[in-house]
C-alpha cells in the first residue's frame, strides 16, 4: 500500500497507521506487522498522516520522531487536537531518546517509545495488545450503542430517570475500568463500582486449577461478627458458577445474591457475587449487573494479558542473565587451562598451535556473549554511557590492543592514520573502545589473511570521523541499507563460513548514537572491500596525553609465605584450573566448593584474597561474602567476585555484600594476577576510583 492513495477500511481488520518519511522503514514495518493480519496504512509525512486520521479510525499510530517539515512531536500535538484521535495510542519510534524529548512525548499522550531499529517480536507484541484493546473497545462501543438505544426506548415506557442513571453508571464504569492495566487496581475498581450502586456488598472470586474458589476479594471488608461475608452456601454457589459458567441467583428470606461468571473467550477467569436486599434484585437490576459483569470480565482480561506480557519480559531478562552465566562458567576453566599451557617452557608446535586456537576461540565466545547481552540491554534502554574527557590517541591504542590477537592470527597489517592535532572528545572509554574493536574485528573477519586494514581518523568543524577500510569480501548494494539491522547478515549460505550472530554492527550503531554520533557504511560491491565510518562530536585539545600502555602478563614473583588465596567455586573444573594456575605463579592456594566450607577454611587459612563465585549451592556468594566480612580471620581480605553474572544488578549486590571487585568469567588472567600480586594496592586503586 503506497502513500499516494488513501487506503480503505476493510472488513473486521483494524487500521494501524505507520508514519515515517523513509520508504524502506515502511517495508520493514509492513514485514514485521504483516502476520497480525491487519490493515497497515502508510504515511510519509505528518500532513499525510493528519489527512488519513480525518478519514479513518486507527487502533495505534507508530510515529517516527525525526521527520522533515513536521517532526513526530509536532505531528502528535496536531493529532491530539482532533477529537476523533484524541485518545488514539501513539508509539514513538526513534533511534535516540533524551529526557527532554521523552517528557514532551509523554506529555502529548505517547504510550511508549520503541528504539530503532526495532526488535520485531517486541514491536509485534506491543502492537498486538493495542489491536486487541481497540477491537474489544470497538465491540464494547457497538454493544453499548445497541444497549443504549434499547435503554432509551424502554425509558419512554418506564422510569426515564432510572434508565439515565444506569446508562451513566455504565459509562462511568467503562471509563474507570479502562484507566489502568494493573490487575490489582482493576480488581479494586470493579468492587468499588459495585458498591453501593449495584449491591450492598461485592465479592470477587478467582478460581484455582481444580475449578474451585482460590482467592476472595470483598468490599466492604467483613467484620469479625459478619456472618454473611461468605458463607459455605455462598462459596458452594460460587464454585458452581465457576464450573458451569452459568449465572446463579441465590435467595434466602429477605437477602439475595446474584453470582455472575467472568469469562474471556472459552476461559473462566472468576465469579462476581453481588449481595443485598432481595427486593432490589428485580429483572432490571439483574440486567444492569450482568452488563457490568461483562465489562468487568473484559477489563480484567486486558489487565491479565498486560501482566502476562510484563512477566514474559521479566522472565526473558532472567533467562539472558542465566544463559550468560551458564555459558561463561565453562569458559573460565578453558581460559585458565590455556594460560597454564602458555607457561610451559617447551611445547611441541602442534600443541602450541592447538593452545592458541583454543584461547582465541574462548575469547571470541566471551565477546559474543557480551555483545548479545549489550544489544539486549540497549534495545530495552538499560545502557547508560559514562561520559569523561578522552584523548583520541589513547582511545585508539586501547582499541587496537584489544584487536591485536585476531589481526596477528590472520597475519594482517593495520595501518593507523591520525590527525596532526590533539583531539579530545566526551565519551565512555569502555564503550567507544568496544565500538572501534568491533569495527576492526569485523574488517579482519571478512578480509583475507595477510591483507591490510586501514584505520583513519580525521577532524573537521567539531566532528571526529573514524573509518575502518578493508580489502575483503565487500558488500552487495542491496544489503548496504541493512548493514546495521539486528541479526542481519549478508552471508546466508548454509556453511556460515564467517560465523557470528549479526549483532556486532547493530551494537556499534546503538553505542555511537548514545554518544550523539552517527554511523554509515560504503562498498563498491562484492570482492571490492568495505569501509565503515563513524562520526562523533569532538574538539581540538591541548597537548596530547600519552597513550596508555597495554596490560602485559609478567610472572608474579611471590616469595615463600606470600599471598594466601582462597578459591571458592562449585564448578570443579573452574576451581581446579584456577588453583593450579595460581600455584604455578607462587601463591598459596586453598579450594572450597560451597559457602560453609569456604567459611570454615577461611577461619583456619586466614586468606589475604578470596576469589568467590556467586552462584554457589546452599549459601550464595553474597551471603558468603557477608559471612567472611564478619569473621575476624577474613574480615580484611580482598574479596573478588569471580562469576558468570555480569548484569548491573549483580554488580550492585556485590558492592553491598562487601566485595572489593566484581569480575565476569572468563576473567582476564593477566589483570587478575596483577591484582593478586599486591592486594593492598588493588584495594587502594578501587578506593581512589
From TrEMBL:
Compartment annotation: Cell inner membrane
Residues spanning the membrane: none
Main subcellular location of this protein, as a coarse class: membrane
4-aspartylphosphate modifications at: 64, 613
Every Histidine kinase domain range: 322-540
Keyword Transferase belongs to the record: yes
Catalytic activity: ATP + protein L-histidine = ADP + protein N-phospho-L-histidine
Top-tier EC class: transferase
GO molecular function, a single term: phosphorelay sensor kinase activity
Membrane topology: Multi-pass membrane protein
Residue ranges of every copy of the Response regulatory domain listed in the record: 15-131, 564-680
Pfam families: HATPase_c, HisKA, Response_reg
The UniProt record lists the keyword Phosphoprotein: yes
CDD domains named in the record: HisKA, REC_2_DhkD-like
GO CC entries: plasma membrane
EC number: 2.7.13.3
InterPro entries (alphabetical): CheY-like_superfamily, GAF-like_dom_sf, HATPase_C_sf, HATPase_dom, His_kinase_dom, HisK_dim/P_dom, HisK_dim/P_sf, Sig_transdc_His_kin-like_C
UniProt keyword annotations, A-Z: Kinase, Phosphoprotein, Transferase
Protein name: histidine kinase
Source species: Ramlibacter ginsenosidimutans
Amino acid at each position: 500500500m503506497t502513500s499516494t492513495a488513501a487506503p480503505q477500511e476493510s472488513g473486521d481488520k483494524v487500521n494501524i497507521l505507520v508514519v515515517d518519511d523513509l520508504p524502506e522503514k515502511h517495508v520493514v514495518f509492513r514485514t514485521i506487522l504483516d502476520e497480525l493480519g491487519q490493515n497497515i496504512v502508510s504515511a510519509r509525512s505528518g500532513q499525510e498522516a493528519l489527512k488519513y486520521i480525518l478519514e479513518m479510525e486507527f487502533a495505534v499510530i507508530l510515529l517516527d520522531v525525526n521527520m522533515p517539515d513536521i517532526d513526530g512531536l509536532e505531528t502528535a500535538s496536531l493529532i491530539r487536537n482532533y477529537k476523533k484521535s484524541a485518545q488514539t495510542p501513539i508509539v514513538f519510534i526513534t533511534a535516540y531518546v533524551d529526557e527532554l524529548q521523552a517528557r514532551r512525548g509523554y506529555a502529548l499522550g505517547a504510550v511508549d517509545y520503541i528504539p530503532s531499529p526495532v526488535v520485531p517480536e517486541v514491536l509485534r507484541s506491543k502492537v498486538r495488545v493495542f489491536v486487541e484493546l481497540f477491537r474489544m473497545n470497538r465491540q464494547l462501543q457497538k454493544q453499548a450503542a445497541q444497549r443504549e438505544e434499547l435503554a432509551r426506548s424502554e425509558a419512554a415506557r418506564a422510569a426515564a430517570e432510572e434508565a439515565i442513571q444506569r446508562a451513566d453508571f455504565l459509562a462511568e464504569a467503562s471509563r474507570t475500568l479502562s484507566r489502568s492495566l494493573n490487575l490489582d487496581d482493576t480488581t479494586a475498581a470493579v468492587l468499588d463500582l459495585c458498591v453501593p450502586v449495584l449491591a450492598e456488598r461485592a465479592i470477587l472470586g478467582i478460581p484455582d486449577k481444580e475449578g474451585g474458589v482460590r482467592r476472595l476479594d470483598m468490599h466492604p471488608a467483613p467484620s469479625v461478627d459478619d456472618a454473611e461475608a461468605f458463607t459455605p452456601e455462598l462459596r458452594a454457589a460460587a464454585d458452581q458458577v465457576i464450573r458451569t459458567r452459568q449465572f446463579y441467583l441465590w435467595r434466602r428470606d429477605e437477602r439475595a445474591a446474584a453470582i455472575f461468571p467472568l469469562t474471556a473467550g472459552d476461559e473462566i477467569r472468576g465469579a462476581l457475587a453481588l449481595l443485598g436486599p432481595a427486593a432490589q434484585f428485580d429483572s432490571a437490576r439483574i440486567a444492569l449487573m450482568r452488563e457490568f459483569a461483562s465489562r468487568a470480565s473484559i477489563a480484567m482480561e486486558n489487565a491479565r494479558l498486560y501482566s502476562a506480557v510484563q512477566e514474559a519480559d521479566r522472565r526473558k531478562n532472567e533467562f539472558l542473565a542465566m544463559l550468560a552465566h551458564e555459558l561463561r562458567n565453562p569458559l573460565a576453566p578453558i581460559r585458565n587451562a590455556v594460560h597454564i599451557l602458555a607457561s610451559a617452557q617447551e611445547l611441541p608446535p602442534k600443541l602450541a598451535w592447538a593452545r592458541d586456537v583454543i584461547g582465541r576461540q574462548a575469547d571470541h565466545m566471551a565477546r559474543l556473549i557480551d555483545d548479545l547481552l549489550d544489544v539486549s540491554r540497549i534495545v530495552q534502554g538499560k545502557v547508560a554511557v559514562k561520559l569523561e574527557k578522552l584523548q583520541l590517541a589513547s582511545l585508539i591504542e586501547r582499541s587496537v590492543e584489544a584487536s591485536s590477537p585476531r589481526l596477528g592470527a590472520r597475519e594482517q597489517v593495520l595501518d593507523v592514520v591520525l590527525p596532526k592535532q590533539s583531539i579530545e572528545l566526551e565519551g565512555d572509554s569502555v564503550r567507544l573502545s568496544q565500538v572501534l574493536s568491533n569495527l576492526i574485528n569485523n574488517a579482519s573477519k571478512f578480509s583475507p589473511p595477510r591483507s591490510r586494514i586501514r584505520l583513519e581518523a580525521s577532524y573537521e568543524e567539531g566532528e571526529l570521523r573514524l573509518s575502518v577500510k578493508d580489502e575483503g569480501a565487500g558488500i552487495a548494494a542491496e544489503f548496504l541499507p541493512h548493514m546495521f539491522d539486528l541479526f542481519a547478515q549478508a552471508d546466508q549460505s548454509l556453511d556460515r563460513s564467517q560465523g557470528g550472530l549479526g549483532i556486532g554492527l547493530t551494537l556499534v550503531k546503538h553505542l555511537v548514537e548514545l554518544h550523539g554520533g552517527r554511523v554509515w557504511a560504503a562498498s563498491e560491491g562484492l570482492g571490492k572491500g568495505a569501509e565503515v565510518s563513524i562520526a562523533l562530536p569532538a574538539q581540538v585539545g591541548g597537548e596530547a596525553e600519552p597513550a596508555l600502555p597495554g596490560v602485559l602478563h609478567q610472572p608474579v614473583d611471590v616469595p615463600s609465605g606470600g599471598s594466601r588465596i582462597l578459591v571458592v567455586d562449585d564448578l570443579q573444573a573452574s576451581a581446579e584450573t584456577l588453583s593450579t594456575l595460581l600455584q604455578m605463579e607462587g601463591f598459596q592456594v586453598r579450594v572450597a566448593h560451597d559457602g560453609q566450607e569456604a567459611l570454615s577454611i577461611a577461619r583456619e587459612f586466614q586468606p589475604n584474597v578470596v576469589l568467590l563465585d556467586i552462584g554457589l549451592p546452599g549459601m550464595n556468594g553474597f551471603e558468603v561474602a557477608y559471612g567472611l566480612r564478619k569473621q575476624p580471620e577474613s574480615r580484611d581480605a580482598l574479596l573478588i567476585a569471580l562469576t558468570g553474572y555480569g548484569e548491573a544488578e549483580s554488580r550492585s549486590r556485590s558492592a553491598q555484600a562487601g566485595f572489593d571487585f566484581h569480575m565476569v568469567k572468563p576473567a582476564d588472567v593477566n589483570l587478575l594476577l596483577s591484582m593478586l600480586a599486591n592486594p593492598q594496592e588493588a584495594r587502594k586503586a578501587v578506593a581512589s576510583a
